[in-house]
What does this fold into?
Amino acid sequence: MAKGKRLSAILAGVLLFGILAGNADMTVEAGGNSDYLNLMSGGVAALLDSDTGNAEELINTTQKSLDLKAAQEEEQCTLVMANVRNALNVRAEASGDAEKVGMIYKDCGGTILEQSNGWTKIQSGELIGWAKDDYLLFGEEARELAASVGITTATVDAEMLKVRTEPDKDADFYGVLAKDEIVEVMESDEEDWVLINYEGEDGYVSSEFVTIDFKIDYGETMEEIRVREEAEREAKRHKNYGEYTTDADTTLLLAALIQCEAGGESYEGQVAVGAVVMNRVRSAAYPNTIHGVIYASGQFTPAQSGKVNRVYESGRIKESCILAAQEALSGVSNVGDLTHFRRNNGREGLVIGNHVFY
It folds into this structure.
């Protein structure tokens, strides 16, 4: 389920003053208020492919490049983060009886526009409206959560960009990235190179040809929810993507995602990525279709950047990734019921190759 678009550093503006200040790993929940789950058809917004352990280093690098340190000390923090298990209704007015204008989801953020009597008017992407303070995080808590769930990305500016095995223009290369492709940044402190996650491998790209952003997720307006749900229905109707469907289209779609996320991993690691997708399909907190899970906004960077589509349409999918997809579709899971994974650098969880599953 496409729960919201990513919030880039350019759009964040003053929001970055809050984001670039901390690093922690938090899990927050709202109390037993059934209202915020109304019309929730699945999905949470934790970013799977963010490297939590490197967050402070990456954020500090971005901070230096944008020269925001001095401004951070002067500006009041306007960052707000959702403090819910799944989703929170956003209202047209500061009242529980007011019209619902959209929803903000777990680990999504926005900026504070106004506050009144236990309610905060927020802007989260295109969504503007009032949310109850009981289900929001502010100040240092908001900054810590943003640092733990955000992701630093590199967007390719060149028509084609080689991914090198070492930070050297004469080094071998894993493959080529296309213009506007988005990849996760692992480190960006090299003078001329950026270390990225390339299909599970550590690869290097020239910093001259990429744009670095720090991103978090944001919510959806009711119109965006309607459009997204209709697109999911169409995908299911025409492509037959379903929870336990094993048609060729579904298998290859899942295999394409596995290749993008773990093409350089062992077969065990490839099966694990497929199992995470199927665990989400089976979970009530996520979309109940493979297509919906894969293309959920903020979840899989290769799907958002169009790389999954390109791999799928090319037909050049590794045999091991196809086999891993078939196993995951048949119900095999080597990660139990876990629904998240990230690059491994110390986070607690089940470690398989370069990923940690949790």
